């Protein structure tokens, strides 16, 4: 292991990465302008650094083999400098293998999807409340005005979606993957729709039901604990939203997902699909071990596809794309807001996670994983390795005389001006 030290010293000098290293034997290796320190307790973790396996260093931190001293923004700056190439262009990693032959649908059975969603979202409601906005909107905000706080930008995002869907009073609105109810309740209270939300998270299901009762929305809004494949309404919905959901669907199930939406949506109705997409057309997962880190600690079973692949799947299902918007920089800013909020409350995070998990060691690992996940994701969006798209689609009704202008075939107006009035 001693032979690693000259290699690492050379890397730091050549790349001018602003980082310092404390080795297991107490020695220190540092660049002149280091702002963050990695203290290694284990030589094997140091070997991962020498090979620039950033994800493996993250795993070592979560497992207590490495300590981080310094700000997460400085850590991500150093991580970018240590990467050997663009991690979004790598052809190595877990997803590469199964997308070249393994059956991803095995990872997305009804049971498996429920298990994976609960792994992430049912850690602790109080933990998420520490760093999300008051509405607990756990998806990309929309900074309509640069001066907005993240809470204001989340409300702007909710309204942006409702405007894109052209929600009208009395319409039947379905929110697939409704989370803590932010969009579901916003649409009901501000646009007068009759809302249905579905989730696989037991914590979110209980939380939203409490909000429905507290706000007097029973009879107008409901949430159900079930998979999108299990939903069989007595009549189709006028408008459907899916926010931060299709990342969990799986490549093998994507066509079936949009086929299901076609079944659930009335002819002429609109779908707003909002979610994370890959930054490269042929991308499978982030390299340098970062994708593997997210798979293990954050989103088991998650898969990212390029926006062109998503739009192909929607088209093959019979949906017409009428508007697509890239919000990538908005998500970078959203994630940094979340990361900064968590960093100011690490002690509180440990306490609520310990209450939620019943295990101090498990709580510490979860908190460390989320520190890296939030900051690392912000970095990935900043760099363009991953992206975020809102895709508005219509289900054509075949009526050439729909509306005032021949050929519309849906509720979508001929101009997007309606979104911004």
TrEMBL record:
UniProt protein name:
Class I SAM-dependent methyltransferase
Highest taxon in the source lineage: Bacteria
Q: Which UniProt keywords apply?
A: Lipid metabolism, Methyltransferase, S-adenosyl-L-methionine, Transferase
SUPFAM superfamilies named in the record: S-adenosyl-L-methionine-dependent methyltransferases (SSF53335)
Q: Which is an annotated Pfam family here?
A: CMAS
Keyword Endoplasmic reticulum annotated: no
One Gene Ontology MF term: methyltransferase activity
Write out the similarity annotation: Belongs to the CFA/CMAS family.
Q: Name one GO biological process term.
A: methylation
Q: Which residues form the signal peptide?
A: none
Q: Which Gene3D superfamilies match?
A: Vaccinia Virus protein VP39 (3.40.50.150)
EC class, as a word, reads transferase
What Enzyme Commission number(s) appear in the record? 2.1.1.-
């Amino acid at each position: 292991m001693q032979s690693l030290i000259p290699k690492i010293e050379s890397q730091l000098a050549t790349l001018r990465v602003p980082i310092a290293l404390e080795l297991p034997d107490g020695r220190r290796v540092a660049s002149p302008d280091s702002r963050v320190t990695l203290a290694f307790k284990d030589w094997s973790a140091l070997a991962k650094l020498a090979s620039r396996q950033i994800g493996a260093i993250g795993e070592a931190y979560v497992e207590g083999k490495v300590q981080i001293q310094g700000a997460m923004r400085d850590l991500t700056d150093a991580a970018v400098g240590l990467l050997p190439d663009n991690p979004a262009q790598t052809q190595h990693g877990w997803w590469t293998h199964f997308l070249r032959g393994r059956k991803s649908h095995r990872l997305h059975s009804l049971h498996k999807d429920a298990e994976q969603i609960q792994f992430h979202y049912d850690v602790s409601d109080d933990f998420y409340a520490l760093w999300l906005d008051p509405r607990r909107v756990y998806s990309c905000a929309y900074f309509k005005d640069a001066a907005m706080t993240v809470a204001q930008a989340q409300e702007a995002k909710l309204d942006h979606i409702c405007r894109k869907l052209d929600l009208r009073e009395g319409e039947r609105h379905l929110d697939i993957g409704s989370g803590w109810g932010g969009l579901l309740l916003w649409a009901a209270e501000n646009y007068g729709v009759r809302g249905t939300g579905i989730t696989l998270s037991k914590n979110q299901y209980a939380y939203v039901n409490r909000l429905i009762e507290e706000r007097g929305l029973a009879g107008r809004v409901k949430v159900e604990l079930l998979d999108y494949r299990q939903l069989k309404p007595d009549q189709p919905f006028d408008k459907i939203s899916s926010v931060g959901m299709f990342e969990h669907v799986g490549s093998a199930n994507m066509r079936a997902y949009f086929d299901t939406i076609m079944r659930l949506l009335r002819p002429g109705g609109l779908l707003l699909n909002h979610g994370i997409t890959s930054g490269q057309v042929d991308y499978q997962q982030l390299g340098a071990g970062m994708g593997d880190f997210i798979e293990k600690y954050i989103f088991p079973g998650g898969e990212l596809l390029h926006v062109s692949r998503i739009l192909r799947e929607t088209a093959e299902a019979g949906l017409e794309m009428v508007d697509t918007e890239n919000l990538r920089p908005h998500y970078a800013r959203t994630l940094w807001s979340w990361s900064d909020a968590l960093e100011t409350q690490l002690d509180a995070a440990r306490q609520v996670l310990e209450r939620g998990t019943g295990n101090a060691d498990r709580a510490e690992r979860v908190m460390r994983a989320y520190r890296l996940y939030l900051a690392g994701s912000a970095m990935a969006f900043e760099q363009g390795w991953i992206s975020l798209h809102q895709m508005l689609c219509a289900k054509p009704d075949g009526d050439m005389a729909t509306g005032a202008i021949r050929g519309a075939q849906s509720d979508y107006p001929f101009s997007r001006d309606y979104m911004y009035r």
